[in-house]
Amino acid sequence: AITRGDWIVDARLAKPGERLDVELTLLDDAGITLQHWAPLHVHIGTLHRVAHVALLDDDTLAAGHTARVQLVFDAPVCALPGDRFIVRNAQATRTVGGGRMLDPFGPPRKRRTAERRAWLDALRVWLDDGRIGPLLEEAPRGVSRSMLMQLTGLPAEALLLPDDADEIALHGRDAVIVLRSHWARLRSQVLAALDQYHARSPDELGPDAARLRRIAAPLVPDAMWRALIDSLVDE
């Protein structure tokens, strides 16, 4: 059954999340100062849910101020970057603020790292200026094309990629989009790891591809790692 707050969406956008990173502004007369993990009633379109607030910039958020926070729900919620929302107090008796979505796929840990804040800054640039380049600059291991579609709401053919971005095919029809500067850095990282390995163990043949990956680039996606190894072998 379809209930209030449900979405009917293209399958390429059907990826709800439970942790939404947002820009939140409290009204001047909100009458509250938000502490970490404070509950709020959140209204996104017709959806009404209670979420806990994880503060990302400071330890508190006072009335009349804006900050980035993570709204943590107890069930998945559909949203896209740029979507607007309203929040009411814990008693649901008063509207206290609102804001816009930044990243509907917020992480459960390491929410306040410099890398994470830079990613949210890049999403804000996309929302304000429509430029994807800053997102790719903050993605040293690239971003899947499907994720870019989910973050922008645009089909693949409408994504205006910078000239220095390349696509690496994945299984199915997806691909990883990565800047050439990041690709070159990954190649250098792998070669440096090999040099260090042979310097430490000159009598050994060297690590196999799986072990080299664990040493040099454990977080690189499978298909991207295979493409990286293939390019080094070809060279």
Automatic annotation (TrEMBL):
Keyword flag Nucleotide-binding: yes
Domain Translation elongation factor SelB winged helix type: 191-235
InterPro entries: Beta-barrel_SelB, Elong_fac_SelB-wing-hlx_typ-2, Transl_elong_EF1A/Init_IF2_C, WH_DNA-bd_sf
UniProt key word GTP-binding: yes
Keyword annotations: GTP-binding, Nucleotide-binding
Lineage: superkingdom: Bacteria
Single GO MF annotation: translation elongation factor activity
SUPFAM superfamilies in UniProt: EF-Tu/eEF-1alpha/eIF2-gamma C-terminal domain, Winged helix' DNA-binding domain
Pfam family, one: Beta-barrel_SelB
GO biological process: selenocysteine incorporation
Residues in Selenocysteine-specific elongation factor beta-barrel domain copies: 31-107
Protein name per UniProt: Selenocysteine-specific translation factor
Naturally occurring in which organism (per UniProt): Paraburkholderia franconis
Lineage, broadest ranks: Bacteria, Pseudomonadati, Pseudomonadota, Betaproteobacteria, Burkholderiales
